[in-house]
Automatic annotation (TrEMBL), chains A, B:
Domain HTH lacI-type: 11-65
Record's keyword annotation contains Mitochondrion: no
Single GO term (MF): transcription cis-regulatory region binding
Name assigned to this protein: LacI family transcriptional regulator
Keywords from the UniProt entry: DNA-binding, Repressor, Transcription, Transcription regulation
Pfam family, one: LacI
Amino acid sequence: MSQSVSSRQPVTLAEVAREAGVSPSTVSRILNGTAQVKAAKVAQVKAAIEKLGYKPNAFARSLATGASGSVGVLTQDIASPFYGDALGGIESGLMGSGYSPLIISGHWRTDDEEHAIELFMSRRVEALIVLGGHLPEHELRQLAQQLPVAILGRRVDLPSAGSISLALDNQRAAYDVVNYLLDRGHRRIGHLSGPRDHADALARLAGYRQALEDRGFPFQPGLVVQGDFHEPSGLIGTQQLVAQHPDMTAIFSANDQMAYGARLALYRMGLRVPEDMSLVGFDDLPGSAYTTPPLTSVRQPMAEMGHWLARFVVAQLTGQEITPFQPQLELRLRESVAPRRLP
Amino acid sequence: MSQSVSSRQPVTLAEVAREAGVSPSTVSRILNGTAQVKAAKVAQVKAAIEKLGYKPNAFARSLATGASGSVGVLTQDIASPFYGDALGGIESGLMGSGYSPLIISGHWRTDDEEHAIELFMSRRVEALIVLGGHLPEHELRQLAQQLPVAILGRRVDLPSAGSISLALDNQRAAYDVVNYLLDRGHRRIGHLSGPRDHADALARLAGYRQALEDRGFPFQPGLVVQGDFHEPSGLIGTQQLVAQHPDMTAIFSANDQMAYGARLALYRMGLRVPEDMSLVGFDDLPGSAYTTPPLTSVRQPMAEMGHWLARFVVAQLTGQEITPFQPQLELRLRESVAPRRLP
DNA sequence: CTGTTAGCGCGTTCAA
DNA sequence: TTGAACGCGCTAACAG
C-alpha cells in the first residue's frame, strides 16, 4: 500500500502539505498537536505522511522553536564500566521526557573536554550532565549560568539555582572501610591508592589515613603504593607491598580494578584470600560479586545517581519540582575479608 | 579584556557582523574559509567573535548546508563492557573526521531500536553504525539505500555498495575452543549457551556441537545448559551441570560473564580451576585477564572493529578509499584450562 | 478551524 | 574582495 520511493532528498513538510491539499501550518499543527484540526484533514495528512515517508527535520524544528531537545552528557570513557552504569541511569532518567542525550567522552583530558563542551554548545544542548573530569570549576560555574548543569562525582560550588553537583563522601567511605578492617583485628593494612590528580583517589587516601590515626595507629607512607586505577598497577603494587611488609594482613584498594590486580598478584604468590590476606575494593563493579572470593567493596549507586541527575535537569527544564536525593555509599560485605589470625 | 556577558540568548552571526561592521556573509566566509577576506576585517571579526562569545549554531548551519556532521551509533547497552569497547573504537575512528557520534541504546528491544532509528533520521545523521540488535534485515537494507550503514556483529546482506556488515565467525571460534579442549584430553565438556534468539549464541553452540561430532563424540543435549549471558545464569547452570555430570571435566561458556558465574559456582563447590575443571569463556572481557586463574577466552577485537567501521563510514561520506579489514577471533590461552587428569 | 506571512541563524548565489 | 538577497524546513503570530 504505502510505498515510499527511496528518494535521495528527504521529504519536507511542504511536500506533505501539497500532497494532502492543505497548508504547511495545518500539517505542523497535526504533527505537534498545537491545535484542533478537522478529522478529515488529519486523515489526509496522515496518509500523505505515510505515502511520502515523511520524517520531520529536527534541525529545522529546533531552529524555529529554539529548543534542541537534547542534553549534553560529558563522560570520561565510554567503555568504562563505572561511568557506563551512570550513563545507563541517565538514559533511563531521560526516557519519555522528550529529551535525548548527546554523549561525548572527555578521556580525562581537559582539551577533549573543552571540545566536547564546544560541540554541546554549538548543538545547543539545553542542559549538561558532567561525569567527573577535569574541567576547571570556574568554567563549570559559567556554564551553569547559561543552562542547568548537573555534575556527578565532583563537589563543585554551583551558586546558580537550577544546577547541582552530586558527590559522595569518599573519604568517609574509606574511613569506614579501614575501621571495618581494624575491627577485624587487622593492624598492618596496605593501601593501593589512585592517581594523585584524582579527587576521589585523594579522598580515599585521606579516609584511610584518618581512620588509622583516629584509632591511634600511625600512618605509614610505606604501606601506600600509588597506582593508576587499572589492574596492572594493582598487581605490581601488591607484589611490592607484600615483599616489603611480610606482616601486612589486609589491603584496601582505592578501586576494584586495582583490587583485581591485587587478587591475581596474591594468587600468584600463593597467598589465599581472605585466609592469608584480606582485600577490599571500591566501586563495586558488576564483576566484583563474582570474583573468587566475591570482593568486599564500596558500592557507589552510579545508575541511581545518573537516573536522578537526568530527572533533575529535566525538572529544571520543564519547571517541575523534584524530590531531593542523597546518594549513599555502601560497604558491600562479601567474602574477601576475614578476621586477622593471631600469629 | 574579552568579557562576554552571560546573555540568555545566544549570540548570532548577524550580531557579530554588526559588531565588526561587516556583512554577515563576510563573517560566514571567515568562519568557513570559503573565500579570501582582507586581513583587517578578519581581525575585526575575530575580535567581535571573542568579545561576544559567539558560538555558531550547528542547527542553522546544518539546515543551510544540508549536512548534519553526525553519524548515528545504535548500541544495545551503553553500560556493556563488550559494546563499550566498540564504542570507544568508533569514537577514536571518528576523531578528527569532522563527524561526531550520536549514540543511542536499543536494549535488544526492537521497538527501542526503531525509536533510535527514527531519532537518527530526524537528526539527519549522515551514516549509521549498528552494533548487534534485532532490527529486521529488510529494514537495515532499506536504510542502506539512503545512507552508509555499517553493522557489527551481525551478518547482513547489504547489496548497496557503501554499506557493510562485519561479523566474526563465532561458530569457527567455538569449534576451535572445543577442539582445544578435546586435544587436552577432555571428553565430557559442558556448554553454557546464550539466549536462543541471539545469533552469536547459536553459532557458538553450533560450533561446540560440530567439533564434538567431527571428532566422533556424540552431541549430548544434557551437557548444554542455556543461560542469558549474565553471571547468575552461569552460576546456576554450572551447579546444574556439575550435579548431573560428575564426570564432566571442562566447561565452555558462551561468554565471559557466564564463565564468571561458573567460576564462582565451582569455587563454592570446592572444585579447583583448572585442576578439577577446565573453563573457557568467550569475549575476553577486560577483567578476564585478572580472574583467578586468568581465564582462557576468545577475544573479539571490538575496539579495532569499531574503529575500522567508523573510518569506513567516513570514507564513504568523503568518497575516499579504505583498506579492507578482516577481523579475526583469537583464542587467548591463559590458565583456566589444564589437561584432563586420568582417573 | 485554517491559510498566509514572518522569521529562526546560517551558507550561498549573484552582482557590484 | 564584499554585500544584498534568497532559501534551507519548520513553527508561530495573525488574520480570516
